[in-house]
Design a protein that fits this description.
single chain, 217 residues, alpha/beta, Rossmann fold, 6-stranded parallel sheet, 31% helix
Length: 217
């Protein structure tokens, strides 16, 4: 493994950069320089967040810079890579990101009283074709299969899932690696095992499937 460098953590819907406080501390103990990127996850647009992230990364110097995005944050990362990829970005890990669409969000969007919970950015992702991301940046995706979360209250969430996002929704075309861990959607923000796998990919370009006891899926 190479020496850790700069890592930018991108939160999900209805969150703020502080949700990564524990994982940032753990990463700092491993030698990483951590940066929490906050954006308007509910009322802001997807492209607006992506452009702001690109400017945030571009201001960090020569790099390399690594990205870690949770849920909607992973979609912001993908949108940024498709729109205006900063040359410093080396690798990215997406945690529970609904790359292939979100059944939970689709159900909420059909309910007038609840559709506002989805936010503008996620609704925009669901309404568009998948963005074209070149292969210059290695992308790894992590899914959870512990089905505890508010998504279980919505009918028809495919299994396996993390309580909010189905494993099948987390796959990204062209991703270099994918792994499924026994965590819920929210546990990804605090899970040590999840962080170890993310760090392993960011440093090597692959997840440690042997350590996770996970199949290559």
């Amino acid at each position: 493994m190479t020496t850790p460098g700069d890592i930018v953590l991108v939160h999900g819907l209805w969150m703020h950069g502080w949700v990564f406080a524990l994982q940032r501390r753990r990463l700092q103990q491993r030698g990483w320089r951590t940066h929490a990127f906050s954006y308007r996850s509910v009322r802001g647009t997807l492209d607006g967040a992506a452009d702001a992230l690109a400017e945030f990364v571009a201001a960090m110097g020569d790099g390399p810079v690594y990205l870690l995005g949770h849920s909607l944050g992973g979609l912001v990362v993908l949108d940024m890579l498709a729109r205006r990829r900063p040359p410093q970005v080396a690798r990215a890990v997406l945690l529970g990101a609904p790359c292939q669409g979100s059944h939970s969000a689709a159900v909420l969007l059909r309910l007038p009283l609840l559709r506002g919970l989805v936010g503008r950015g996620l609704a925009q992702w669901l309404a568009r074709p998948l963005p074209q991301v070149d292969g210059a940046v290695d992308i790894g995706t992590i899914a959870g299969n512990r089905p505890l979360g508010s998504g279980r209250l919505l009918p028809g969430l495919p299994r396996p899932n993390d309580g909010m996002v189905a494993v099948s929704e987390t796959h990204w075309p062209g991703a270099r690696d994918h792994i499924v861990l026994k965590v819920t959607h929210s546990q990804m923000l605090v899970s040590r095992a999840c962080l170890e796998q993310a760090q392993h990919f960011l440093l090597t370009g692959a997840f440690n499937h042997r350590a996770a006891g996970a199949p290559l899926v």
